[in-house]
Amino acid sequence: MGNLDRLQLLRDFIKEEPENPFNYYALALELREKLPEEASELFEFLLKNHPEYLPVYFTAAHFFAESNEIQKAREIFEKGIQLADSQKEEKALKELKNAFQNFLFEYDLD
Question: Smallest Cα–Cα separation from 30: which of 20, 18, 42?
Fold first, then answer.
């Protein structure tokens, strides 16, 4: 399946199940390299409309850090850590905390 076919398939999934955050997340992952503006919009949409969808925090924080939106990335990491803790998702909590520490070190923040 070609990239354009995969993108269309993911867009179709969103039309079929607009309430499912995974569909938006999967499309954002596909778009982040070639169409970062659209990926950014999808990450923003997920963070606003599906704030309990934990998987988006790790990826969105990295995406915005790579886009040089450092403060936004930091806020996303912090919210993701709080969410993982409140959801008792120990593995995600550990991964987010480790990624956040690496982020702070890489960007010389505290």
Answer: 42
Token pair belonging to 84: 């993982």
pTM of the shown model:
0.93
Domain CATH number, residue 85: 1.25.40.10
Expressed as residue numbers, the domain containing 88 is 3-106
The two three-digit tokens of residue 104, written as one number: 């702070």
Q: Phi-psi region for residue 2, left (φ > 0), alpha (ψ -120 to 50) or beta?
A: beta
Q: Which residues of the chain have pLDDT under 70?
A: 1
Strands (E), 34-108: none
Neighbours of 1 (CB within 10 A): 7
Count: domains in the chain:
1
